[in-house]
Specification:
Elements (H helix, E strand, L loop, with lengths): L2 E5 L5 H12 L4 E3 L10 H11 L2 E6 L7 H12 L3 E5 L16 E2 L10 H24 L3 H8 L2 H8 L8 H26 L8 H24 L10 H27 L8 H34 L1
Parallel strand pairs: 1-2, 1-3, 3-4, 4-5
Helix pairs in contact: 4-5, 4-6, 7-8, 7-10, 8-10, 9-10
């Protein structure tokens, strides 16, 4: 999620509000002076915000090009190499010092949240976000390695590339990793409480669960793209709900098996094998459910073209 500052003239407040809402629909955090509260020092707050955002979007209009404060905010973005200008008139000339920058044209944009104009704008913001992410990562390593990290082609691919539907690979990988840790911890704790022995941490189980979550979320993104939708959020409601349901179903099946064994004279016991079976069931349920969903979506898409 990128953090974005919107600079505009008071006369263009409606345009700024509509644009902010459209960008927020992509999962980004947008700040503009509508968020100021009573008692805030206007200049200090704005300078602080601009210093911490990933992109500064300035709205060039007949009104804003005459405003000193808008030009000052745009200059701060220009100095930080994260300025993204937009314009609402093809005949408009940006102020001196900004005319060399490409400005996204929004004159034909009618305000819908998902539009080609906003897609292009968000792509530019994502590029700036990726560059800042690589810079932060480079600052964590040895100075001798900093340039190599910033210029790494592998990192550039991971942080810049995106799946159909707009999710960046870096967000997909980090989201799958964090989800793996959370789901594995839940399963581990449940089985530890029910059983009488500590379970050995199995790297293979973690990798298998990670791969399943990665594949399932990638398939989910393809389904969204096939429906003409996009999302740069990993933890959308549908996927979070699916993960929860897979865990609950796997635990319910294991519990049913234990009860069935006890009813047939067996000794109800939860051990490491039970834990491995539960993890395996979550993996199968996740991949199977999203594979079926993907095939159904593909089938509807193909049938609609016939």
């Amino acid at each position: 999620m990128a953090r974005i500052f919107v600079s505009y003239s008071r006369d263009d407040r409606d345009k700024a509000a509509i644009l902010a809402a459209a960008i927020e629909d992509y999962g980004h955090e947008v700040w503009w002076d509508a968020h100021l509260v009573g008692g805030d020092d206007f200049r200090d707050v704005i300078e602080d915000r601009i210093s911490r955002v990933d992109a500064v979007i300035v709205l060039w209009t007949e009104s804003s090009i005459k405003k000193l404060w808008v030009k000052a905010e745009a200059m701060l973005g220009l100095e930080r190499n994260n300025l993204v200008p937009v314009r609402y008139s093809s005949d408009l000339t940006p102020p001196m010092g900004f005319e060399h920058l490409h400005a996204e044209y929004l004159g034909d944009w009618t305000g819908e949240k998902r539009a080609p104009e906003i897609d292009r704008l968000v792509v530019r913001v994502d590029g700036l976000k990726s560059a800042r992410d690589r810079e932060r990562l480079a600052n964590l390593v040895d100075p001798k390695l900093k340039a190599k990290v910033q210029n790494s082609n592998i990192l550039r691919v991971v942080m810049d590339s995106a799946l159909p539907g707009g999710m960046r690979l870096s967000r997909l990988i980090l989201g799958a990793l964090s989800t793996t840790v959370v789901l594995w911890a839940i399963l581990y704790l449940v089985n530890l409480v029910l059983g009488d022995e500590a379970h050995v941490v199995n790297a293979g189980q973690l990798l298998l669960l990670f791969a399943a979550i990665l594949i399932a979320r990638a398939l989910d993104q393809l389904v969204l793209a096939a429906k003409g939708r996009s999302s740069d959020r990993f933890f959308d409601r549908a996927f979070a709900f699916a993960c929860q349901m897979c865990v609950l179903v796997a635990l319910a099946l294991e519990l049913a098996f234990i009860i069935f064994s006890a009813a047939n004279g067996g000794q109800p016991h939860v051990n490491n094998d039970t834990f491995q079976d539960t993890v395996a069931m979550v993996v199968v349920l996740l991949v199977a459910s999203y594979s079926v969903r993907g095939l159904l979506t593909l089938g509807r898409s193909l049938s609609g073209r016939v």
